Amino acid sequence: MPDSKPPLPPFTAETARLKVQAAEDAWNSRDPERVALAYTVDSQWRNRDVFLCGREAIIEFLREKWRRELDYRLRKELWAYTDDRIAVRFEYEWHDAEGRWFRSYGNENWEFTPDGLMSKRYASVNDVPIVASERRLAPRCGPFA
């Protein structure tokens, strides 16, 4: 278990952006255990209409999410920050087992402990059906990926 997860509060514009990028990288790994290490053991979540508490619940939630949301690809953008809070906007694309594509948009509000672990994550998300040709977040290859 990590004792801290830098960058640590209080956040600056630079460290808040680094925290957002670290979250984006972890979520794009689609590794629930890796993602969950950024949260306190008793972290509180609201994701759409689902309320969770704790790393184990987060891991199970993410396992199920990525069983349904195939080829998931995410981008996060810093919206605002204070000493121990960060707000982000995000979009991600995914398809279901039938091959229907979606782009999901939303906002998250994060609160951190002094050791840099997220103690609260509140997410609002909306899904929009798209066709594959409308994808903006497709993985890229080569030196410009």
Question: Layout of SSEs?
Answer:
Layout: H1 13-29, H2 32-36, E1 39-47, E2 50-53, H3 55-68, E3 70-81, E4 85-95, E5 101-112, E6 118-130
Task: Summarize, please.
A six-stranded mixed sheet has the order 2-1-6-5-4-3. It is an alpha+beta fold and 145 residues long. It is built from three helices and six strands.
Structure description:
- The protein has 145 residues and is α+β, with helices and mostly antiparallel strands.
- Helices cover 25% and strands 42% of the residues.
- The chain has a six-stranded mixed sheet.
- A hairpin with a 5-residue loop joins strand 5 and strand 6 (118-130).
- It is globular, with a radius of gyration of 15 Å.
- The termini are far apart.
- The mean pLDDT is 94.
> Quick one: overall form?
globular
Distance between the termini: 32 Å
Uncertain residue ranges: none
Rg, nearest Å = 15 Å
Strand line-up of the largest beta sheet:
2-1-6-5-4-3
Which secondary-structure class do the elements indicate? alpha+beta
Main pleated-sheet profile: 6 strands, mixed
Q: Give the number of DSSP strands.
A: 6
Helix content: 10-25%
Whole-number average pLDDT?
Answer: 94
Q: In percent terms, what proportion of residues is strand? A: 35-45%
Please give the count of helices.
3
Element order: H for helix, E for strand = HHEEHEEEE
